[in-house]
Protein backbone atom coordinates (compact mmCIF):
# COMPACT_ATOMS: atom_id res chain seq x y z
CA UNK A 1 0.00 0.00 0.00
CA UNK A 2 1.46 3.40 -0.97
CA UNK A 3 2.24 5.94 1.74
CA UNK A 4 -0.67 8.38 0.99
CA UNK A 5 -3.14 5.55 1.58
CA UNK A 6 -1.75 4.31 4.90
CA UNK A 7 -4.52 6.17 6.75
CA UNK A 8 -7.98 6.51 5.29
CA UNK A 9 -11.57 5.38 5.16
CA UNK A 10 -12.86 2.15 3.67
CA UNK A 11 -16.49 2.43 2.55
CA UNK A 12 -17.92 -1.08 2.88
CA UNK A 13 -21.21 -2.40 1.50
CA UNK A 14 -21.92 -4.68 4.45
CA UNK A 15 -23.63 -7.96 3.58
CA UNK A 16 -26.57 -9.38 5.49
CA UNK A 17 -25.72 -11.76 8.32
CA UNK A 18 -22.31 -10.24 9.07
CA UNK A 19 -21.74 -8.11 12.18
CA UNK A 20 -20.05 -4.72 12.00
CA UNK A 21 -17.28 -6.21 14.17
CA UNK A 22 -16.88 -8.97 11.59
CA UNK A 23 -16.38 -6.36 8.87
CA UNK A 24 -13.72 -4.62 11.00
CA UNK A 25 -11.90 -7.95 11.50
CA UNK A 26 -11.88 -8.54 7.73
CA UNK A 27 -10.55 -5.03 7.02
CA UNK A 28 -7.82 -5.52 9.64
CA UNK A 29 -6.55 -8.53 7.72
CA UNK A 30 -6.77 -6.76 4.36
CA UNK A 31 -5.09 -3.55 5.62
CA UNK A 32 -2.46 -5.37 7.65
CA UNK A 33 -3.07 -3.28 10.77
CA UNK A 34 -4.92 -3.66 14.06
CA UNK A 35 -5.88 0.02 14.17
CA UNK A 36 -9.28 -0.24 12.48
CA UNK A 37 -12.72 0.87 13.66
CA UNK A 38 -16.15 1.71 12.27
CA UNK A 39 -18.52 4.67 12.44
CA UNK A 40 -21.97 3.55 13.55
CA UNK A 41 -22.98 -0.08 14.03
CA UNK A 42 -25.21 -1.85 11.52
CA UNK A 43 -27.23 -4.80 12.80
CA UNK A 44 -26.37 -8.22 11.30
CA UNK A 45 -29.72 -8.17 9.44
CA UNK A 46 -28.95 -4.79 7.84
CA UNK A 47 -26.88 -4.19 4.73
CA UNK A 48 -25.26 -1.16 3.16
CA UNK A 49 -22.81 1.61 3.95
CA UNK A 50 -20.45 0.97 6.85
CA UNK A 51 -17.63 3.51 7.12
CA UNK A 52 -14.42 1.93 8.41
CA UNK A 53 -11.37 3.94 9.49
CA UNK A 54 -7.78 2.71 9.16
CA UNK A 55 -4.89 3.98 11.30
CA UNK A 56 -5.09 7.77 11.93
CA UNK A 57 -8.49 7.91 10.24
CA UNK A 58 -10.00 6.01 13.18
CA UNK A 59 -9.91 9.35 15.02
CA UNK A 60 -12.30 10.77 12.43
CA UNK A 61 -14.94 8.16 13.13
CA UNK A 62 -16.45 9.77 16.22
CA UNK A 63 -17.01 12.95 14.21
CA UNK A 64 -18.41 11.05 11.21
CA UNK A 65 -20.93 9.33 13.46
CA UNK A 66 -22.60 12.69 14.06
CA UNK A 67 -23.46 13.18 10.39
CA UNK A 68 -26.76 12.59 8.59
CA UNK A 69 -27.60 9.07 7.48
CA UNK A 70 -29.85 7.57 4.80
CA UNK A 71 -31.76 4.27 4.81
CA UNK A 72 -34.10 2.18 2.69
CA UNK A 73 -36.34 -0.04 4.77
CA UNK A 74 -39.36 -2.32 4.67
CA UNK A 75 -41.81 -2.12 7.56
CA UNK A 76 -44.23 -4.98 8.15
CA UNK A 77 -47.44 -3.87 9.83
CA UNK A 78 -49.53 -6.44 11.67
CA UNK A 79 -46.74 -8.18 13.59
CA UNK A 80 -44.70 -6.94 16.57
CA UNK A 81 -41.47 -8.61 17.71
CA UNK A 82 -39.14 -8.50 20.71
CA UNK A 83 -36.38 -6.80 18.71
CA UNK A 84 -38.57 -4.62 16.45
CA UNK A 85 -37.10 -6.49 13.47
CA UNK A 86 -37.44 -9.87 11.78
CA UNK A 87 -34.78 -11.49 13.98
CA UNK A 88 -36.89 -11.25 17.13
CA UNK A 89 -39.66 -13.42 18.50
CA UNK A 90 -43.23 -12.50 17.61
CA UNK A 91 -45.01 -10.85 20.54
CA UNK A 92 -48.35 -10.04 18.88
CA UNK A 93 -50.24 -10.28 15.60
CA UNK A 94 -53.10 -8.01 14.57
CA UNK A 95 -54.70 -7.89 11.10
CA UNK A 96 -53.39 -4.87 9.18
CA UNK A 97 -54.53 -5.63 5.65
CA UNK A 98 -57.54 -3.35 6.06
CA UNK A 99 -55.44 -0.22 6.56
CA UNK A 100 -55.82 2.33 3.79
CA UNK A 101 -52.66 3.63 2.14
CA UNK A 102 -53.54 7.17 3.19
CA UNK A 103 -53.85 6.09 6.84
CA UNK A 104 -50.30 4.78 6.76
CA UNK A 105 -48.92 7.84 4.96
CA UNK A 106 -50.62 10.15 7.43
CA UNK A 107 -49.26 8.22 10.41
CA UNK A 108 -45.72 8.26 8.96
CA UNK A 109 -45.90 12.01 8.35
CA UNK A 110 -46.10 12.51 12.12
CA UNK A 111 -42.54 11.19 12.45
CA UNK A 112 -40.98 13.83 10.20
CA UNK A 113 -39.12 16.66 11.93
CA UNK A 114 -37.63 16.89 15.41
CA UNK A 115 -39.14 14.12 17.53
CA UNK A 116 -38.55 12.28 20.80
CA UNK A 117 -37.76 8.63 20.10
CA UNK A 118 -37.37 5.74 22.55
CA UNK A 119 -34.53 3.55 21.21
CA UNK A 120 -35.24 -0.11 20.63
CA UNK A 121 -34.61 -2.21 23.73
CA UNK A 122 -31.99 -4.31 21.92
CA UNK A 123 -29.83 -1.33 21.02
CA UNK A 124 -26.14 -0.97 21.85
CA UNK A 125 -26.90 1.82 24.33
CA UNK A 126 -25.27 1.19 27.70
CA UNK A 127 -27.45 0.93 30.80
CA UNK A 128 -25.35 1.07 33.98
CA UNK A 129 -22.29 -0.01 32.00
CA UNK A 130 -23.96 -2.91 30.19
CA UNK A 131 -25.32 -2.94 26.64
CA UNK A 132 -29.12 -2.84 26.50
CA UNK A 133 -29.24 -5.77 24.07
CA UNK A 134 -27.20 -7.91 26.48
CA UNK A 135 -29.61 -7.12 29.31
CA UNK A 136 -32.52 -8.20 27.11
CA UNK A 137 -30.71 -11.44 26.19
CA UNK A 138 -30.13 -12.06 29.90
CA UNK A 139 -33.89 -11.84 30.47
CA UNK A 140 -33.96 -8.38 32.01
CA UNK A 141 -36.65 -5.78 31.38
CA UNK A 142 -35.07 -2.74 29.74
CA UNK A 143 -36.68 0.68 29.59
CA UNK A 144 -34.74 3.33 27.70
CA UNK A 145 -35.43 7.05 27.85
CA UNK A 146 -36.65 8.98 24.84
CA UNK A 147 -34.00 10.91 22.95
CA UNK A 148 -34.31 13.81 20.53
CA UNK A 149 -33.71 12.83 16.89
CA UNK A 150 -34.48 14.49 13.59
CA UNK A 151 -36.18 12.84 10.62
CA UNK A 152 -35.31 15.11 7.70
CA UNK A 153 -37.27 13.13 5.11
CA UNK A 154 -39.45 10.03 5.10
CA UNK A 155 -40.68 8.86 1.70
CA UNK A 156 -43.18 6.06 1.10
CA UNK A 157 -42.49 4.11 -2.10
CA UNK A 158 -44.79 1.10 -2.17
CA UNK A 159 -47.31 -0.78 -0.03
CA UNK A 160 -48.03 -4.49 -0.48
CA UNK A 161 -50.69 -6.57 1.26
CA UNK A 162 -49.63 -10.08 2.27
CA UNK A 163 -52.54 -11.81 3.97
CA UNK A 164 -53.23 -9.92 7.20
CA UNK A 165 -49.96 -7.98 6.94
CA UNK A 166 -49.10 -4.78 5.13
CA UNK A 167 -45.52 -4.21 3.94
CA UNK A 168 -44.41 -0.59 3.51
CA UNK A 169 -41.23 0.36 1.62
CA UNK A 170 -39.74 3.66 2.82
CA UNK A 171 -36.64 5.81 2.47
CA UNK A 172 -35.43 7.82 5.46
CA UNK A 173 -32.94 10.66 5.87
CA UNK A 174 -32.25 11.24 9.54
CA UNK A 175 -29.87 12.44 12.21
CA UNK A 176 -27.33 10.20 13.85
CA UNK A 177 -28.86 8.20 16.71
CA UNK A 178 -32.15 7.54 14.94
CA UNK A 179 -33.41 3.95 15.11
CA UNK A 180 -35.32 2.87 12.00
CA UNK A 181 -36.58 -0.16 13.93
CA UNK A 182 -38.14 2.24 16.41
CA UNK A 183 -39.98 3.98 13.58
CA UNK A 184 -41.43 0.61 12.53
CA UNK A 185 -42.40 -0.16 16.12
CA UNK A 186 -43.96 3.25 16.73
CA UNK A 187 -45.82 3.28 13.40
CA UNK A 188 -47.37 -0.08 14.25
CA UNK A 189 -48.34 1.22 17.69
CA UNK A 190 -49.86 4.39 16.24
CA UNK A 191 -52.00 2.33 13.88
CA UNK A 192 -52.90 -0.22 16.57
CA UNK A 193 -51.54 -3.23 14.69
CA UNK A 194 -47.88 -3.56 15.72
CA UNK A 195 -44.93 -3.35 13.36
CA UNK A 196 -41.34 -4.38 12.77
CA UNK A 197 -38.59 -4.12 10.15
CA UNK A 198 -38.10 -6.92 7.64
CA UNK A 199 -35.32 -5.24 5.65
CA UNK A 200 -32.89 -2.38 6.25
CA UNK A 201 -30.23 -0.99 3.94
CA UNK A 202 -28.10 2.03 4.86
CA UNK A 203 -27.67 4.11 1.73
CA UNK A 204 -25.46 6.91 3.06
CA UNK A 205 -23.34 8.10 5.98
CA UNK A 206 -22.72 11.80 5.50
CA UNK A 207 -21.02 12.33 2.14
CA UNK A 208 -20.40 8.60 1.58
CA UNK A 209 -23.07 6.68 -0.31
CA UNK A 210 -23.51 3.28 -1.92
CA UNK A 211 -21.79 4.53 -5.07
CA UNK A 212 -18.54 4.69 -3.08
CA UNK A 213 -19.06 1.41 -1.21
CA UNK A 214 -17.34 -1.87 -2.02
CA UNK A 215 -18.29 -5.38 -0.99
CA UNK A 216 -15.90 -7.43 1.11
CA UNK A 217 -15.24 -9.65 -1.90
CA UNK A 218 -14.36 -6.60 -4.03
CA UNK A 219 -12.05 -5.30 -1.31
CA UNK A 220 -10.38 -8.71 -1.16
CA UNK A 221 -9.53 -8.41 -4.86
CA UNK A 222 -8.51 -4.73 -4.75
CA UNK A 223 -8.20 -3.01 -1.38
CA UNK A 224 -9.11 0.66 -1.82
CA UNK A 225 -9.34 3.49 0.67
CA UNK A 226 -10.43 7.11 0.63
CA UNK A 227 -7.26 8.94 1.76
CA UNK A 228 -7.70 10.76 5.04
CA UNK A 229 -7.26 14.21 3.46
CA UNK A 230 -9.90 13.49 0.83
CA UNK A 231 -12.28 12.07 3.46
CA UNK A 232 -11.88 15.20 5.58
CA UNK A 233 -12.59 17.49 2.61
CA UNK A 234 -15.69 15.48 1.70
CA UNK A 235 -17.03 15.53 5.24
CA UNK A 236 -16.21 18.94 6.70
CA UNK A 237 -15.83 22.55 5.63
CA UNK A 238 -12.23 22.90 4.42
CA UNK A 239 -9.75 25.68 5.24
CA UNK A 240 -6.35 25.95 3.56
CA UNK A 241 -3.73 27.53 5.84
CA UNK A 242 -0.52 29.48 5.45
CA UNK A 243 2.75 27.88 6.56
CA UNK A 244 2.70 29.99 9.72
CA UNK A 245 -0.86 28.94 10.59
CA UNK A 246 -0.04 25.31 9.85
CA UNK A 247 2.90 25.43 12.26
CA UNK A 248 0.56 26.65 15.00
CA UNK A 249 -1.97 23.91 14.25
CA UNK A 250 0.70 21.20 14.47
CA UNK A 251 1.16 22.07 18.15
CA UNK A 252 -2.55 22.56 18.83
CA UNK A 253 -2.65 26.33 19.22
CA UNK A 254 -5.79 28.39 18.77
CA UNK A 255 -6.02 30.34 15.53
CA UNK A 256 -7.38 33.76 14.69
CA UNK A 257 -9.86 32.28 12.23
CA UNK A 258 -13.56 33.00 11.87
CA UNK A 259 -15.09 29.55 11.40
CA UNK A 260 -18.80 29.04 10.85
CA UNK A 261 -18.71 25.35 11.80
CA UNK A 262 -16.35 22.50 12.59
CA UNK A 263 -13.74 22.59 9.83
CA UNK A 264 -10.89 20.52 8.43
CA UNK A 265 -7.62 22.45 8.29
CA UNK A 266 -4.99 21.76 5.63
CA UNK A 267 -1.32 22.69 5.19
CA UNK A 268 -0.28 24.50 1.98
CA UNK A 269 0.84 21.16 0.50
CA UNK A 270 -2.62 19.65 1.07
CA UNK A 271 -1.79 17.62 4.18
CA UNK A 272 -4.77 17.23 6.52
CA UNK A 273 -3.74 18.62 9.89
CA UNK A 274 -6.69 18.91 12.26
CA UNK A 275 -10.33 19.55 12.97
CA UNK A 276 -11.05 22.96 14.51
CA UNK A 277 -14.28 24.52 15.71
CA UNK A 278 -15.41 28.10 16.34
CA UNK A 279 -15.07 29.58 19.82
CA UNK A 280 -15.43 32.98 21.47
CA UNK A 281 -11.70 33.57 20.99
CA UNK A 282 -11.01 32.37 17.46
CA UNK A 283 -10.81 28.77 16.32
CA UNK A 284 -9.87 26.00 18.76
CA UNK A 285 -8.71 22.44 18.09
CA UNK A 286 -11.09 19.51 18.29
CA UNK A 287 -8.59 16.90 17.15
CA UNK A 288 -5.05 17.26 15.75
CA UNK A 289 -3.97 14.51 13.36
CA UNK A 290 -0.28 15.35 13.08
CA UNK A 291 2.44 16.11 15.57
Walk me through the structure.
The active site is at 43 (nucleophile). The protein has 291 residues and is of the alpha+beta class. It has helices spanning 20-31, 61-64, 101-109, 132-137, 180-191, 216-221, 228-235, 243-250; strands at residues 8-14, 36-39, 47-54, 69-77, 79-81, 90-93, 113-117, 126-127, 130-131, 147-162, 165-174, 195-205, 208-209, 226-227, 237-240, 263-266, 272-279, 282-288. Helix content is 22%, strand content 37%. A hairpin with a 2-residue loop joins β12 (195-205) and β13. The radius of gyration is 21 Å and the shape is elongated. The protein starts with 7 loop residues before the first strand and ends with a strand.
Structural class: alpha+beta
Regions with pLDDT < 50 over 5+ consecutive residues? 1-5
Tell me what portion of residues adopts beta-strand conformation. Answer: 35-45%
In CATH, the homologous superfamily of the largest domain goes by the name Pseudouridine synthase
Instruction: Give the helices and strands as they follow along the chain.
Output: EHEEHEEEHEEEHEEHEEHEHEHEEE
Shape: elongated
CATH class membership of the largest domain: Alpha Beta
User: What's the total helix number?
Assistant: 8
Report on the biggest sheet: 10 strands, mixed
Overall mean confidence score, pLDDT:
91
**Terminal Cα span:** 23 Å
Alpha-carbon Rg, integer: 21 Å
